[in-house]
Amino acid sequence: TSAKMRRGTLEAYKQAFLVPVKLTDRRAVYLNRATQDRADFVVRRLEDRGAKLSILVERIEYAHLEDYADEIEEWRKL
């Protein structure tokens, strides 16, 4: 993989998961310590314009719910 491709992939990852957003009406989410430590490491290493662990978790969960929205709706009806 070329450095240019990796850089493009890194930028896409940052745009997808590390761009800060204002979280309103927040709720607590609990993670296993090992998972949190790994996610903290990712955020610290790739931090871009003030990204935080809560943003990473929010963006990953949002993407997951969007990706599986149709399936979740069908499963809900079972």
From TrEMBL:
Q: What InterPro entries does the annotation carry?
A: DUF3408
Tell me what this protein is called. Uncharacterized protein
